[in-house]
Amino acid sequence: MKLHGIERSPEEKINWKSSFPFLLIHALVLLTFWTGITPTAAVLFAVMFWGRMFFITAGYHRYFSHRSYKLGRTMQLIMAFGGGMSAQKGALWWASHHRNHHRYSDTDQDLHSPQKGFWWSHVGWILCDKNNDWNEDDIRDFAKFPELRFLTKNDWIPIWFGAMMCFLIGGWSGLVFGFFASTVLLWHCTFFVNSLAHVMGRRRYATTDTSRNSAIIAFLTMGEGWHNNHHYYQASCRQGFYWWEWDPSYYVLKGLSFVGLVKDIKEPPVRVKTAARVRDGQFDMGMFKAYWGKAGAALHNVRLTRQSDDVDTLAVTDPELATHRQELDELIARNRAALAEHVAHAMAAAEELGRLTRRQNRQTGVID
Ligand SMILES: [Zn+2]
Ligand SMILES: [Zn+2]
Predict the structure, then answer these.
(1) Rounded to an integer, what distance in angstroms lies between the CA atom of residue 9 and that of residue 11?
(2) CB neighbourhood size of 32 (10 A)
(3) N or C: which terminus of the chain has fewer CB atoms within 10 Å of its end residue's CB?
(4) How high is the mean pLDDT in each 10-residue block of the chain (368 residues)?
């Protein structure tokens, strides 16, 4: 963790040219004033929003990224195609980046940590050139399927299919409101899991990141708002660990398991659910790191400022005062450097402890 606040490399700058389609679809929603909202378009909006949300959360996230249940090859393809309709690139791109997020949560290597700024974690990270490609090493288990590679390479196909269907069923209103408007809402609700779910809500479990549980985000995203539960125990398909934690993606998958389309749904064991609770005094590494990171950045930005020109003028006329002032300046500078070093050591120790905790969790099966 660097102690210099937000720093971005040139390839982490937003590429406005390649981001144009993303911004254009936002603007096209305004055409709703011209097309109006027909009852068919309203139904399409709801179906396209919740339907594609399911494909993203149950498919791209819980299946392709975390393998928290099993599917046959046809169902796997349907999940990849459905997720592809949400215009969030292909399943292999999405899942490989998401696995990366879990591996490096809230460290410098995290692709979308809000520690680098809220908007960066929300959309910035997908609008820059840095994350255009996907790394095969991160997703060898699914990259071996040619149909998934094809859909990831030609990620426009499901998007155009969804748009055409909406147009054929609901005309211009169906396309503009049923498809474009639902896509924009779907985007931002999905992105909330990367941004808001790391800053808003409560922490039940001590993890090495800043993930939180939020009922509001869970409502908007069919259960993805229990993000602290999820970071703590990624192997589980069920993210709402208790009956009161709304998790419809899990309920639908459970329903599909009764008819044999979904198999081996992983649930959180009781011993996992009751361990590592912040409430029970477990040391909260994730928040410790976040606060020390902020302290380091604040310290870096402190500038020693002379109080006023009057003091300088006075110092020129009084040599004794000038010497005393210089001594004090040097003392402050020395203390500041010592404090910065202390923060840097504390952060390095926290990073190391975080790495060890993650390795231990992997070995004990708490995470993949
Ligand atoms: Zn995840
Ligand atoms: Zn996260």
Answers:
(1) 5
(2) 16
(3) C
(4) 56 87 96 96 98 98 97 97 97 95 82 84 88 90 96 97 98 97 97 93 92 97 96 95 97 97 95 88 83 78 57 70 84 83 80 76 62
Distance between Cα 194 and ligand 2 center (Å): 6
Interval between CA 138 and ligand 2 midpoint (Å): 17
| 55 Cα: distance to centroid of ligand 1 (angstroms) | 14
Question: For the chain, what are the domain ranges?
Answer: 10-273, 285-363
Q: HSE-up of 135 (CA within 13 Å, CB side)?
A: 9
Rounded to the nearest angstrom, the gap between the alpha carbon of residue 143 and the centroid of all alpha carbons in its chain is 22
Is the distance from CB of 142 to CB of 100 less than 8 angstroms?
Answer: no
Q: Is the pTM of this model over 0.70?
A: yes
- Helix spans in 71-112 (H): 73-84, 91-103
The Å distance, Cα 40 to ligand 1 centre, comes to 34
Where b means 16+ CB within 10 Å and e means fewer, 101-139 reads bbbebbbeebbbbbbbeeebbbbbbbbbeebeebeeebb
Exposed/middle/buried for residue 345 (C-beta within 10 Å: 0-12, 13-18, 19+):
exposed
CA 213–ligand 2 middle distance (angstroms): 11
Residue of 65, 310, 87, 57 lying closest to 181 (CA atoms): 87
Residue 13: CB atoms within 10 Å = 13
Ligand 2 centroid vs 121 CA: distance in angstroms? 10
Instruction: Measure the N-to-C terminal CA separation of the chain; round to a whole number of Å.
Output: 23
Q: Is 265 in contact with 237 (CB distance < 8 Å)?
A: yes
**Angle of CA points 227, 232, 233, to nearest 5°:** 100
DSSP of 116-140: G-HHIIIIIHHHBGGGSS--GGGGH
CB hemisphere CA count around 329 (13 angstroms): 12
Residue 214, sorted as left (phi over 0), alpha (psi -120 to 50) or beta, turns out to be beta
Enumerate residues 6+ apart whose C-beta is below 8 A from 306.
Answer: 312
